[in-house]
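Protein record
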Amino acid sequence: MKSIQSILAALAALAVGLGAGGASQAQDTYRHHRHHHSGCEAERRHAANTGTVVGAVAGGLLGNAVTHGGGRLGGTLIGAGAGAVAGHEIAKHGHKC
C-alpha cells in the first residue's frame, strides 16, 4: 500500500509541475498575442481614422459638386458625413494585420 501512495504522490507532484509549466507557457503565449494584437489594433485604428478624414473630404467635395444653388452647404455636409462613415468602415475592414 505504501508504494501505491508514493506513486500517487509522485504522479500528483508531476502533474502539478506540468500544470505550472503549461500555465507559464500559456501566459507567455497570451502576452505575445496581446502585444501583437494591441499593435495590430493600433494600426487598424490609425487606418480607420485616416479613412474617416479622407472619406469626409472626398464626400464633402462630391456633395458640393452634385448639389446646386442654396443647397450646396447641405449637400457638402451630408456628403462629408456619409463619406466619413464609408471611409472609416472601408479602411478599418480593409486593414490586414
Remarks:
- Residues 2-94 form one domain.
- The longest helix spans residues 2-66.
- Confidence is low (pLDDT under 50) at residues 18-23.
- The chain is about 90% helix and 0% strand.
